[in-house]
UniProtKB/TrEMBL annotation, chain A:
Keyword annotations of the record: Membrane, Transmembrane, Transmembrane helix
Alphabetical list of SUPFAM superfamilies matching this protein: Cupredoxins
Record keyword Transmembrane helix present: yes
Name listed for the protein in its UniProt record: Blue (type 1) copper domain-containing protein
Keyword Transmembrane part of the UniProt annotation: yes
From TrEMBL, chain C:
Source species: Sulfoacidibacillus thermotolerans (Acidibacillus sulfuroxidans)
Species classification: Bacteria, Bacillati, Bacillota, Bacilli, Bacillales
First-tier enzyme category under EC: translocase
GO biological process terms, semicolon-separated: aerobic electron transport chain
Cellular component GO terms held in the UniProt record: plasma membrane
Membrane topology qualifier: Multi-pass membrane protein
Protein family: Belongs to the cytochrome c oxidase subunit 3 family.
Enzyme Commission number: 7.1.1.9
Name of protein: cytochrome-c oxidase
GO molecular function: cytochrome-c oxidase activity
Amino acid sequence: MSKTVDSEGRFHRDTDWQPGVFFGVLALVLLIGVAVLFGRFWIAGIFQKAFDRVPTQGTVHVFQFDYAYEPRHITWRVGDRVTIALRNMSDTHWHEMVIGRGYDTVPSAFGAIATQFKTDFWDGVPVRISNAHHVDNLVLNKARATFVGSKPNLATGGDFSPTLQPGGSINLTFTVPNKPGEWQYGCFVQQYMHYVAGMNGTITILPAK
Amino acid sequence: MSSVVSDMHGARSEHARVKRMLPPVVRGLLWALIGFLVMNTLVSEVFDRMPYHPFITRASVTLGWVAAVGGWILGVGAWEGAVKPYLGYPEEWVVPQDWRKYFMYSTDHKVIGLQYIFSSLGGFLIAGFAAMLMRLELMKGQMWIFNNPGAYLSTVGVHGTVMMFSVGTVALVGGFGNYFIPLMIGANSTSFPRMSGVSQWLVPAGIATVVISPVLGQWTTGWRGYEPLAGQDPAGILFYYLGVFALTTSSLLVAINLTATILFKRAPGLTWNRIPMYAWGILAVSLLNLIWLPEIQMTFVMALLNAVIPLPYFAQIGSPLTYMEMFWLFGHPEVYIIVVPAFALWQEILPVMGQKSLFARQWGIIGLVFVMILSGLVWAHHMFTNMRNSQMLPFSFFTEMISIPTGFAYLVSLGTMWRANLKLNTPTLYTLMSMFNFLIGGVTGVLLADPVVNLQVHDSFFVVAHFHYTVIGAMVFSWFAAFFYWFPKLSGRMYNEFWGKVGAIWVFIAFNMTFGQFFFLGLHGMNRWVPVYPSYLEPMNFEVSLFAFLLGLGFVFNFLHIAWMWNKGPVAKDNPWQAKTLEWQTASPPGEQNFDPIPKVISGFYDYRDQRLPIRNSPQKEPTS
Amino acid sequence: MSEVTDQKASAPSFKQASTAKELRQNRFGLILFVTSQMVPYFMLINDRFVLADTYVSRRVDPLLGGFLPTLLLLLGVLPSWLAVRAIARNALLQMQRQLQLTGLLGVLALIVMVWPMFSHRYDAISPFGEIHLVSLGLGGFFTLAALFVLGSVLLRATKGVIGPQHYFSVEASAWVWTFNAIAWLVLYIAVYFI
């Protein structure tokens, strides 16, 4: 941004700004806008699939938004000791996290809608539950749970699912069971609409070394 | 500039002039980004840290947006062009006289007018694209383009909001109004050129905000932002409120500027009796804007606080109906904000093209003013389903009454055409089409004002058809009429009459085939706000969508024709239509000074009984008071 | 008063001496804007009865959030117009003093009006009080705006662009101030007495 001086000693900018910079930046901004608007989950998924092949160990923070998870892809190895630190970041919405594969569906005007997973990842898995705050309810199903600290409100029915109130949190610590392959996680609250709206992700579990 | 410098300072300035300034728009984007990051970080990390400290919270994104818009406005030139001179620093904002002037802050009303026209054109194309996506989705009875209903509803919301607040409210007022009002009243600038320069740059900011709102989360309320539904939506609704806030602020400033211009900048001899029809239209619209835009801004501020703080309005205290009252108090006058300039345009174009005096001019003005007054008394017809029968009667009555002053606009136009030797060219064609379409929109409006019909077709495609006939049918067709009518004035060139007519007929047929069928879709049971519908409606929806795509292509064709002829068209005469209004009594396109000297008006502009000009170019510059 | 004279011909005319007509035009534009900003007040005062009837939250302090700012703002009206009178007589220093006095009163008013809002907890326990807080917040926002205008005029005064031929900005700040004071007075009466 240079300034030049005219005959009366006043400052003036050189106003012949470059069209190349203008159109280049404008095109770039438009491109970013379109990408963010239409493809942000898609792009994020590609990135995570591409760069997230190293198994995560220890704690993985899973944030719940309206209506998406961050991250959308997790990789684990069988036998590792891991913790899911689940956080509901929404100001307004209750969110859960169910892990499984296959779908139970219900027909509707929208076409078949996934209502929950057919297989529950947590079947028979020993899990230590801690740091439970603002948990609306926790369905244990067939998981073998132990509790540290305050015990959340337990409920029954459906797969293993912690449902968090806005701002809620829960930590699930467990040893990755011998169930290798692709798993899904998702949130099915509000008549499954969160899942339909894209609130889901995938977990890759690599076999033990 | 640079040659002066090298003359003065010789070798030293050889070093000084290597770098050029950053393009103002790029600088605006940069400052906006910096503003957003700084403010957002301050709020979300320092002042209002939330549990688990997310970087973007509702409060931080709201305040960050305010900083971003401030940075954008200052960056495109308001810093040098408005703020610094106001504070007493010398003015150092120089606008180059080439295409660059359209992409930076300017105080020339013609540049600002064209910037407004470009901005609303951009909004029209974006929102039109959203409409194409919607029609694509509705070709099938199930979800197939969007993967969830919320995405479809967000698209509907973006379409409606951008069309209403950046096209309907802006195109004929901020756009053609800013360009032509000073020309039509014999002035060289508007009253508050700096404010006008600032207000234009709020429009792209507002459009961009609304368009990227789904990034923050879906919002399912459409352009009406109904509470408490909006309160349950994810954070995308915030950008709806904020974007609309920017757009309405822009229109509010335009209203103040143009009202003051019409009242204080008129050429000598341009008495109240001689004020042009379009200026009357703009005056009426400005009054509506001045009353109702602050109203809707306050409503949206309350809804925004509801979402950010959060406050308990319309759910714990008040009711959904409270919000609807507040919204439609503005929402119905909005229709007349859109349509009144279109009426005024008919009355500008028809006398010129018929070379016949405007019929019953004072009744035309009375019509515009009474439409404006009555528009504030009809809002509750949008919620007949929520009211007692006894409450419906006055609103039904006033709504039907509004067809009387609207009828004046028709009678003035028809009387002008009566036995006129009407030149049936593209602007005339568009004007007639606009009249035809608004007739359908208006008559179905009278039907909808009737509670018996209203309760039956409420929230169906019948209503969608009705308001598209009023908004596209009247305003967008008149917008095209204005484009072609003033094309020689704006560009100094002539469009191609054949392709102009082809474009007009193309758009007219596609429009009527699309929205005409909407009436029948509605009567057959097609609901608004749903991406899925019973399968028996599928064939008709499929075929309507095809016409909708044809309509979209028709608009694109017209814009391409305009853009092409703007550069390549044959050079036009200064006054190709032999019009008497003031804007044609100067060069086409006007020079940097519209009039030099300011002309003296000696008669009205709509008297075509003889060939005498309505102005006398005074030999010396006359005092303007 | 040294007017800056080396302006380009195409620059807006505001550094030259304002003609009577320009002054009327500027005044008209400003009053139009101020008038349009009455609409939100009308709306909020009406909404209050719809949303909360005549309930006044016990947490809204009638002294801090009500009487004191009303008094301070109304007191500020006088020096703001005295400043206009002063600059019309070419008494720049006197104008600055008067405006500074107005500004001081404004800052005090802002502090006492924001205090109850600052100490208020936004939770679901007292929802009926919130409509008052939003009304008072609107008043606070406009007070801030009026102070902002005042500050910019004071800044201009140091740059030598205000003089007896060109003092509309001083008058503008007085108009904005008066509007804000009256609007707040109406709000005060509506919230605490009706």
